[in-house]
């Protein structure tokens, strides 16, 4: 659903990674894959904290729900000459959890248009708006420092190994 791009990398970092990707595509793919897996772990942790559990204290609720099972890593693709990989949630209601939604009560006289549903939601008692949890944005903020440290370590190890 959402990818992540860190704008914190300087132009030199970006140039270096582009050159590295052209000369050693397997090493750069391996680095991106491991970093995406780390990012996905952070996103899962944030989701468990932000989305939480159902009513009660059932610990296995998180593992049984489709939102928490839907975190995936996409395929490699190029975007403006950069090698990218996407982390997303494949569950059908992930966008509702991520960005929020209008609560629409279920009834036999349910409105069929978006405007009608919004009006119906205003009229019904107990309805309203559920705020989004922005799981991937929060995870990106939590993970950006670790990513920059790992990128520095990757470049240092790459130079150390290949300049011998």
Describe the structure.
With 164 residues, the chain is an alpha+beta fold. It is 55% helix and 14% strand. It has a two-stranded antiparallel ribbon. A hairpin with a 2-residue loop joins strand 1 and strand 2. The protein is elongated and about 75 Å long. The N and C termini lie far apart (42 Å). The model has no long low-confidence stretch (mean pLDDT 80).
Q: TL;DR?
A:
The chain starts with 10 loop residues before the first helix and ends with a helix. The chain is 55% helix and 14% strand.
Secondary-structure map:
Layout lengths: L10 H13 L1 H26 L10 H4 L1 H4 L1 E9 L2 E8 L4 H6 E3 L11 H10 L5 E3 L3 H28 L2
Antiparallel strand pairs: 1-2, 3-4
